[in-house]
Design goal:
This protein is α/β, with parallel strands linked by helices. The protein has an eight-stranded parallel barrel with strand order 1-2-3-4-5-6-7-8, surrounded by five helices. Bound molecules: the ligand O=c1ccn([C@@H]2O[C@H](COP(=O)(O)O)[C@@H](O)[C@H]2O)c(=O)[nH]1. Ligand LLZGTKA7 binds next to strand 8. Homodimer. Pathway: Pyrimidine metabolism; UMP biosynthesis via de novo pathway; UMP from orotate: step 2/2.
């Protein structure tokens, strides 16, 4: 089962909520990222919760273990459905994040590790001194995330089959870099169409601009929803 998470990346909350108010929460979950959280903070998340949406708080924490653990606790207190950290923050940081959620039991948000951003390709890794193949680097970050008990990873759908084959079907894959055609991928580099992402076994596809910047966001959302739920 693959579902849709809409990346709610807007400059103002009026535009964001105008879209949200046209969406059925059964059709999509919502992702609040750095842009909107920096402007509107927890109150935006609360407004989405009051409209019955599940919220993925995509702040990609990357800091020392103590700071990340505290930020994860603050996210859990907000009641979000999913939250994430950068897996490259290391084993101790991810373990601290996981431990911060123990007290929440079954109400804890899903904890997801970011592997290699979908805007990056092999040459970008080389430029920051990573000489491993991009797929191998993604797999080793995913393996580390699983080892410390995270629920899944953010990756490109291009890596989905390799990760599922290595780490099992229950390890959740959250995949941005979804594009309806390869003509305009914006700043994304490792892109996949919604139907292909579903075939590759992703659990949650993250879609922003193809929906939010289109002339008719709801009809694009409905088209994608029906194409992957046939
Ligand atoms: O590797 C990553 C991790 C997170 N993102 C986020 O997903 C959305 C994608 O938006 P589009 O408009 O569909 O490109 C955006 O909020 C990113 O911050 C990602 O793209 N890649």
């Amino acid at each position: 089962m693959t579902d849709i998470i809409i990346a709610l990346d807007y400059e103002n909350d009026t535009d964001a909520l105008a879209l949200v108010d046209k969406i059925d929460p059964n059709m999509a979950k919502l992702k609040v990222g750095k842009e909107m959280f920096t402007r509107y903070g927890p109150s935006l998340v609360q407004q989405l919760h009051s409209r019955e949406f599940k919220v993925f708080l995509d702040l990609k924490f990357h800091d020392i273990p103590n700071t990340v653990a505290k930020a994860i606790k603050a996210s859990a207190d907000l009641g979000v459905w999913m939250v994430n950290v950068h897996s490259s923050g290391g084993e101790k940081m991810m373990t601290a994040a996981k431990e911060a959620l123990h007290a929440y039991g079954k109400d804890a948000p899903l904890l997801i590790g970011v592997t290699v951003l979908t805007s990056l390709q092999q040459e970008d890794l080389t430029l920051v001194g990573i000489t491993n193949r991009l797929l191998d680097h993604t797999l080793s970050l995913a393996e580390l995330a699983q080892k410390v008990g995270l629920d899944g990873v953010v990756c490109s759908a291009q890596e989905a089959q390799n990760i599922k084959n290595k780490l099992g079907q229950n390890f959740r894959l959250v995949t941005p870099g979804i594009r309806l055609s390869m003509d305009n991928s914006d700043d994304q580099k490792r892109v996949v169409t919604p139907l292909k992402a579903k075939e590759l076994g992703v659990d949650h596809m993250v879609i922003g601009r193809p929906i939010t910047q289109s002339d008719n966001p709801i009809s694009v959302l409905e088209e994608i929803y029906h194409s992957i739920n046939n």
